[in-house]
């Protein structure tokens, strides 16, 4: 109830009390009679407005009553909605897309999309470890025979065509296997490949055949190693490595950390030096020394 309405009601009531106490004879049609009729009508109108406001605020009318327990039990149940058919569901989906499109066009904001599912690095490595188990020949791909073995273990029927969705070369690479195994959408797969690119790159590098060097090539690199191994310890320390970096015009700190990749003990052994100098992987460097019949300490 606004304050001004309360004040007006009080003023009207006071005026009526004054008129009744004075027992004034009101002549019909006079100015006083018209004023009194106007005040009465305004008072009734105020009372009606207060009743309506109360009805709107409480959500009920003055004649409403709560149903009894018997009435609630005897009331018929609400009708159940019929299950939507496939066609009606398709039409509803199209209608929702149409409304989202026009809403986005009117507001200038893109429509809200379902958030993409994400996979952690551990989950990606877990799926790729399954890939490595069934890649029996180690060529970095799963062929039809290897996929058949995987399908038998999983208890499903799958063909190369079902999983070969990216390159479509008749074999399944790691990225295709991940998308096929977890059943993600193309957008989710692209997000995983971007976020965990290093994990996929590492698997592809390990699946490639190791590059080979001749014994003469390995011996030439070792000659450089012994030239900078001034104390003849069979290891190159930070001081000796600094002299090599000055000749090669490379940053000493970053290069030393990259060269000391296998043991990370602050010294560079022949295998680490070979991998650093020729730019190969540690596995390729170890393979080169094994093919030459040499160990790390020469």
From TrEMBL:
SUPFAM superfamilies assigned: EF-hand
UniProt-recorded Gene Ontology molecular function terms: calcium ion binding
Organism in which the protein naturally occurs: Haptolina ericina
Record protein name field: EF-hand domain-containing protein
UniProt KW keywords: Calcium, Metal-binding, Repeat
Pfam families: EF-hand_5 (PF13202)
Region: Disordered, residue numbers: 58-88
CDD domains referenced in this protein's UniProt entry, alphabetically: EFh
Record Gene3D superfamilies: EF-hand
InterPro entries (UniProt xref): EF-hand-dom_pair, EF_Hand_1_Ca_BS, EF_hand_dom, EFHD1/2
Keyword Calcium in annotation: yes
Keyword Transmembrane: no
Domain EF-hand: 122-157, 216-251
């Amino acid at each position: 109830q606004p304050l001004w309405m309360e004040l007006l009601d009080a003023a009207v009531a006071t005026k009526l009390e004054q008129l009744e106490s004075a027992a004034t004879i009101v002549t019909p049609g006079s100015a006083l009679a018209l004023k009194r009729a106007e005040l009465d009508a305004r008072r009734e109108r105020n009372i009606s407005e207060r009743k309506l406001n109360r009805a709107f605020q409480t959500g009920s009318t003055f004649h409403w009553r709560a149903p009894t327990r018997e009435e609630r039990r005897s009331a018929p149940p609400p009708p159940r909605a019929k299950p939507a058919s496939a066609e009606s569901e398709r039409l509803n989906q199209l209608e929702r897309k149409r409304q989202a499109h026009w809403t986005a066009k009117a507001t200038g904001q893109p429509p809200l999309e379902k958030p993409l599912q994400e996979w952690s690095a551990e989950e990606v490595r877990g799926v790729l470890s399954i890939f490595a188990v069934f890649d029996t020949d180690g060529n970095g791909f799963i062929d039809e025979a290897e996929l058949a073995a995987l399908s038998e273990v999983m208890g499903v029927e799958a063909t190369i065509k079902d999983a070969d969705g990216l390159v479509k070369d008749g074999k399944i690479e790691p990225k295709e296997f991940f998308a096929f195994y977890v059943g993600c959408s193309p957008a989710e797969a692209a997000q995983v490949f971007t976020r965990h690119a290093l994990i996929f790159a590492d698997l592809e590098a390990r699946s490639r055949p190791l590059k080979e060097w001749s014994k003469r090539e390995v011996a030439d690199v070792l000659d450089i190693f012994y030239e900078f191994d001034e104390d003849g310890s069979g290891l190159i320390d930070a001081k000796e490595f600094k002299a090599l970096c000055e000749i090669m015009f490379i940053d000493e700190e970053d290069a030393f950390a990259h060269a000391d990749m296998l043991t990370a003990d602050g010294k560079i052994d022949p295998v680490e030096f070979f991998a650093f100098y020729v730019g190969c992987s540690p596995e390729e460097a170890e393979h080169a020394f094994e093919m030459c019949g040499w160990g790390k300490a020469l």
